[in-house]
Amino acid sequence: MTEIAPQRAELSAYASIIRKRIALIVTLGVGMVVALFLDIATGPSNLPLSDVFAAIVDPESLGASTQAIVREVRLPAALMAVLVGAALSLAGAEMQTILNNPLASPFTLGVSSAASLGAAIAIVLGVGIPFLPALWTIPFYAFVFAFASVLLLQVVARLRGSSVETLVLFGIALVFSFNAAVALVQFIASQEALQQLVFWTMGSLSRATWSNLGILALVVAAVVPFSLAASWRMTALRLGEDRARSFGVDAARLRFLSLMRVSLLAATSVAFVGTIGFIGLVGPHIARLLVGEDHRFFLPASVLTGALVMSAASVLSKLIVPGTLIPVGIVTALIGVPFFTILILSRRERGL
Amino acid sequence: MARRLEVEGLSLGYGRRHVIENLSMAPVEGGSLTGLVGPNAAGKTTLLRGIAGLLPAEGSIRLDGQELTKLGAAEHATHVTYMPQALPQRVALSVFEAGLSALMSSPDPAIHGAAAREQVMATLDRLGIADLAMRGLDELSGGQRQLASLAQSIVRDPEVLLLDEPTSALDIRYAMRVMQVVEELAREKGTIVIVVVHDIALASRWCRRLVVIADGKVAADGSPDEAVTPEMLANVYGVEARVERCSRGTVQIMVDRALP
Question: Which member of A10, A233, A250 has the closest CB to residue B73?
Fold first, then answer.
């Protein structure tokens, strides 16, 4: 066969599937940017979108108060929504793959509960950290506890005879233990501390500042390339551990490094915004429905879906009761669950 | 020269418990199928996983003189591919993507891009499932899924192919088709194929050699004629049975009753 064969029908079909997926990912990206602008525009004083553009492109053209609102309040919170959504969704996507469980997410396996416990201890006991500004005490404790909980999962993963099921069960056990510990701390807390703690656990973007935004951005930027580099290995792992290992995938190492990424993403997010349960679970599920589980597309789609959903939830949290900012963690669950249910059921109807 | 796989003094297990203890067998040659039969929990899967390098092994596994147990996992995987019993359910991948991931997930893929995609299609052609390439794995029938699973393993063109019950839960036609495809592959490429088959008659029909495993040991080894005897069936499986040959000469087993 010397002549060049025309491309086969199946390979053309595959090429068009790839193009469609790239288009979907671009659409998600555009949707995310739109949501981001809406998020900046909405609030106690609604800004016209033209002002939002101007505030970003040419801040000097706006009045000092508008400038201050955008720069100090709206922009950090809106960017935080996007970053936290992206980070939690990527963490959830990786967890679902490496633990081979569609229910895995930073929330369902105890990472968020651990962060709450850390925050509770910081708030109620008021133990500061030397050389650390008081503002950073709560995020610091939350981060340490969240990270420690994932390390605990790691230890269990390395025990002899432990399977993926063991790991998931252990994670669920962690949720209950940490929640009980949080309840205990709440029980002994003062009225004032209790109120602060309850507010913290609801998850809110209003605590966003440029410095913690920068930290989260760094974490996401550092983690994403490693996630993408592992995408083929994760795709292979979806079809079974023995199978993947027999293709040369070092499954134990893949799982270890992935859980390290998950702990960084989840612990940093939760430390800055509190408990936001739904994104880590729903982001990957929507992404999977859209682009399938070739992780070269699934992981970026999860990142963007998470960012988009979180940003949209942030907009809604300001619109539901005008003039009141409902904690975004409440909105993600209240709006997200029905939306998610419809999505799952419609998929079943289409027989996919 | 045909490829040779030599297994000597092999011990395998989970933790401290050895399922297989000091197992040796005559060299396995490429070019035809070698069947692994035996009752449940005899150690067949353990043996395959051990040869595949998925379990810590003591003893020696040599491929054309090269000691496989000394190789790192990644290099081991370039020689040997293991196919577990079934594909997991609820995975949003197409048949084509499953095949492509088998090539691209290797630490150092042998081929990339268009060449890899062509190779996947060539494999699906060989298995007669090219028309299913873009279908999701979850849309397939049991038999089609098994062929997709087989495609994942043979797309890598391994020197040693280890198949764990590729015909279980398949109807007769798909079972025949799977065995036929694998037999052709072995014949054309000289691949060493060791296949666990539950159905002794099916194994006898396709395999030139049968190794009977019982309690982690080789209970019988040879051509189907030599390995499948009423004595073996009584000792290994605990059944009273007659072994007969049909008009075409293949082994048929008639089981009369389970021994007390």
Answer: A250
Half-sphere exposure of A95 (CA within 13 A, CB side): 36
Q: How many domains does chain B have?
A: 1
What parts of chain B have a pLDDT lower than 50?
none
Whether B171 is in a domain gets the answer yes
Res. A345 pLDDT band, cuts 50 70 90: confident
Interface predicted TM-score (ipTM) = 0.94
Domain residue spans in chain A?
Answer: 82-350
Q: Tell which residue, B201, B195, B225, has the closest CA to residue B213.
A: B195
| B28 within some domain | yes
Q: pLDDT (tens digit, 9 = 90+) per residue, B70-119?
A: 999 999 999 999 999 989 988 999 999 999 999 999 998 989 999 999 99
Q: Which one of B54, B93, B156 has the shortest CB-CB distance to A292?
A: B93
Confidence band for A347, pLDDT divided at 50, 70 and 90:
low
Partners of A239 on chain B (C-beta within 8 Å) are 87-88, 91, 93, 98, 101, 152
Residue B255 is assigned to a structural domain of this protein: no
CB contact under 8 A, A248 and B107: yes
Residues in chain A within 8 Å Cβ distance of B88: 100, 238-240
CATH number of A82-350: 1.10.3470.10
Residue A20 has pLDDT above 50, yes or no: yes
Q: Encode A190-205: b = buried (16+ Cβ within 10 Å), e = exposed.
A: eeebbebbeebbbbbb
Supply the DSSP string of A34-61, one letter for each residue.
Answer: HHHHHHHH-SSSPPPHHHHHHHHH-GGG
**Tokens 């400038």, residue located:** A67
What does the pLDDT read at residue A137? 85
Per-residue confidence (pLDDT) for residue B1, from 0 to 100: 64
Judging contacts by C-beta atoms under 8 Å, the chain A residues touching residue B134 are 10, 13-14, 17
Say if residues A117 and A185 touch (Cβ distance below 8 Å). Answer: yes
Chain A residues touching chain B at CB-CB below 8 Å:
8, 10-11, 13-14, 17, 100, 102, 160-161, 232-233, 235-236, 238-240, 242-250, 288-289, 292-294, 352
In a domain, B166, yes or no: yes
What CATH number does residue B152 fall under?
A: 3.40.50.300
Domain span at residue B152 reads 4-223
Say yes or no to pLDDT of A261 above 70. Answer: yes
